[in-house]
Amino acid sequence: MTKNQNNQEWKSWIKALVIAVIITFLVRTFLFIPIAVEGPSMQPNLEDRDYVVINKLNYRISEPKRFDVVVFHASVDKDYIKRVIGLPGETVEYVDDVLYINGSPIEETHLVEELARLEEGERYTRDFSLEDIPGGHEVIPENHVLLLGDNRPNSTDSRNLGLIPYDELVGSASVIYWPINRIGIVK
């Protein structure tokens, strides 16, 4: 191999590496990122140390939907993962473990098993209304959502933090990719 051919090969490798780094940067910045679930607040649907793929593009082209699992900026250096319960323009209330949106009961299929395990008189979600959470809103304002963890007795969520503005949403959780025995679509 001549010196000129060797230089061409090195240039080709460097070019491929630079392109790979740029593509990785663009994908992570604008499309998808991996995150690790920390803590028990989303059990049983997401476990501590589950790794999930977050779709960052989703909320750039559409609005959150009820029961989406989302990642949001809870503080400058901390992101949380929770479930969308209330949407803009809605009233939200929990009474006796029933979610009411605008006065109508809504089934939370992601909690059916947890609610079935409760003993007589035991509650999974303490009663509250939108007015009870920080901010004291009567209706969820535009570009805000009410988020709750699936593990209602052990979750820091909108009941403590208040309503979350759209611009704090990082994206929606779509797939669990680790550990191997939990690979699947996020419920």
UniProtKB/TrEMBL annotation:
<keyword id="KW-0645">Protease</keyword>
<keyword id="KW-0378">Hydrolase</keyword>
<dbReference type="GO" id="GO:0004252">
    <property type="term" value="F:serine-type endopeptidase activity"/>
</dbReference>
<keyword id="KW-0812">Transmembrane</keyword>
<keyword id="KW-1133">Transmembrane helix</keyword>
<dbReference type="InterPro" id="IPR019533">
    <property type="entry name" value="Peptidase_S26"/>
</dbReference>
<dbReference type="InterPro" id="IPR001849">
    <property type="entry name" value="PH_domain"/>
</dbReference>
<dbReference type="GO" id="GO:0006465">
    <property type="term" value="P:signal peptide processing"/>
</dbReference>
<dbReference type="InterPro" id="IPR000223">
    <property type="entry name" value="Pept_S26A_signal_pept_1"/>
</dbReference>
<protein>
    <recommendedName>
        <fullName>Signal peptidase I</fullName>
        <ecNumber>3.4.21.89</ecNumber>
    </recommendedName>
</protein>
<dbReference type="Pfam" id="PF10502">
    <property type="entry name" value="Peptidase_S26"/>
</dbReference>
<feature type="transmembrane region" description="Helical">
    <location>
        <begin position="12"/>
        <end position="37"/>
    </location>
</feature>
<comment type="similarity">
    <text>Belongs to the peptidase S26 family.</text>
</comment>
<keyword id="KW-0472">Membrane</keyword>
<dbReference type="InterPro" id="IPR036286">
    <property type="entry name" value="LexA/Signal_pep-like_sf"/>
</dbReference>
<dbReference type="GO" id="GO:0005886">
    <property type="term" value="C:plasma membrane"/>
</dbReference>
<dbReference type="InterPro" id="IPR019757">
    <property type="entry name" value="Pept_S26A_signal_pept_1_Lys-AS"/>
</dbReference>
<feature type="active site">
    <location>
        <position position="82"/>
    </location>
</feature>
<feature type="active site">
    <location>
        <position position="41"/>
    </location>
</feature>
<feature type="domain" description="PH">
    <location>
        <begin position="1"/>
        <end position="22"/>
    </location>
</feature>
<dbReference type="GO" id="GO:0009003">
    <property type="term" value="F:signal peptidase activity"/>
</dbReference>
